[in-house]
Amino acid sequence: MKKWIVLALALAVALGGTALAWTSMETYDPWQAGNAEFECSQIAGGPYQYAFKIDNWSDIDENGTWEASFPDGHVNYITISGSDGIYFNWSASPNPIGAVIVKGSNKANVFYYNPQAYSDTGLYAPINPKNNKPYAVSHATFCWNPVSQVCQYETAWAEGTRYVPKGNWAMYVPYDGTAKTVNLMAGQTYVAGTVAFSDPTDGEITITITLTGGWSLQSVPEPVKIQGYDTAPSGNPAPGLFTTYKGTETTVTVPVYNFYGVHLDVMLCQ
Question: What are the residue ranges of helices labelled H in the chain?
Fold first, then answer.
């Protein structure tokens, strides 16, 4: 096994130097093709509850995001990128993948992930002995089991000056008429992204909120709330009563004010 792993690493380097995310790889010669469920039932690591096949790569543009939806309501989004018909990258959200079957000619490489993974790069079909290069990919099948996600729900504010010195940690941002970017703080201690304030144009500015690190908006009405102030506010704010903007957009054009309170309802699911 140790020798096999070393050979696999050497092969990956020879095929482009891509770092490996898969934990093991197996070649089937020949490979018995079928629908996604049938193909995933043939390989190790199962049984897999979900399977999705992207077929006929020679006839389609496989690059893009594919929705894998199932009768029980489970949905996974699989994105293919960087494909040249020989090598490709993939990512999945919200559920990681346990195995990827890459078929070329009448053979298939199976890339296993233990634990399941959210992405990998440089996958390829078996090697054609006539030229020592991978066969063109004819299809790829993804196999996985559902994972339980734990979500953390937080209130977030654009980092600035506290409304009150003690207790409520809500903050507002002074705006002096020039572009600036501040951190978006979730739960007071987590950096969940950034909030950028543009230069003014015709009495308006654009506020751009960028969520990072896996943070996203909660699925609630109006998770983004903005209030502009001519003078520095005081007292505990009531985001539900904000009037400058309330909605779901993360890029918003608003009138110019001297101060802004930017409040979000965010979550982090892992």
Answer: 2-14, 36-42
